[in-house]
Amino acid sequence: MTVNIGFIGVGGMAEAHIGKLLQIDHAHIAAVHDINRERCAEMADKYGAAAYDSAERLIASGTIDALFVCTPPFARGDIEEQAARKGVHLLVEKPVGLDMNEVRRKERAIRDGGIINTSGYCLRYMDIVFKAKSYLADKQIDLVMSYRFGGMPDVRWWRMMEMSGGQLVEQSTHQLDLIRYLAGEFKDVQAIHEQRSLRKIDPEATAYDVGTVSFTLRSGAIGNITSTCLANYVGRGGIEFFGSDFYLSIDGADLRIVDDGQDMTIKSSTDFYLEQDKAFVEAVRTGRQELLLGDYAEAARTLAVTLAANESAASRQPVALPDDEEEGAAC
């Protein structure tokens, strides 16, 4: 079975996915839409896809089996719900939204539609993350330290809090998602976000440029995640896990494990974007949701933590996360 794939939003992230899909058996780029008509036509011509002048027409065309949603988070509308109603399978890039009520509504529609679904948390597909998850399965994690330092994307919407959600929602969400994946759910967060130099670049910017979040996990472990988008001379992202009988870190593509019997470092050999897209295509082709390392609902839980941190930064107060039962009731 060939999986005919559509794209809504064909910027750099979409083209990165397309490059991987071209390497995958059974994947065919069938249709594209972007509000930038020139870009849409260029991508359609480059990859032999049909260009559509609206998301609605692409989804209703009957020409696609699966859809990659690669628009910025403020520009999603009801794309996911339309796709779910049509039985079109979904990979929705992170973050999956900026408003939890809207995201929960989409989550229900996706679940009710019975479609294969996932999100863009690609780091879960790294071989070293698989090794880390296996190692940590029987460990008591006591402290988690995480960071994401780098430059700022050259798109204005990213600097606007109401359009991007800020760096934690947009970038450091990858590290935060791995904390959830490897160490369990968050109990509460307390954040400080500040503007230090961003207004020199854009006087009207509303996002922060430095931020730190302290948190407690439901396991009892505590931790911190610190971010800046103004680190123009260094870029790195990682997580460190500390226990009384071990240390484990994921620093970019390197996994280090230290305990009484070893001190080893393993470098990832995985193209995690390719592995994620292969898993999605195969899940759609075979109808096996279990091939994917996270669904839309998982992405919604990660988003909830990042939005709670934004709420905490605004109020200067800690914010508690709902437990699984409360989340289930909300859905």
From TrEMBL:
Question: What's the short name of a Pfam family annotated to this entry?
Answer: GFO_IDH_MocA
Give all residue intervals belonging to the Gfo/Idh/MocA-like oxidoreductase N-terminal domain: 3-110
Ranges of residues in domain GFO/IDH/MocA-like oxidoreductase:
146-245
Gene3D superfamilies hit by this protein = Dihydrodipicolinate Reductase, domain 2, NAD(P)-binding Rossmann-like Domain
MF terms from GO for this chain are:
nucleotide binding
Q: What name goes with this protein? A: Gfo/Idh/MocA family oxidoreductase
> What is the native source organism of this protein?
Cohnella nanjingensis
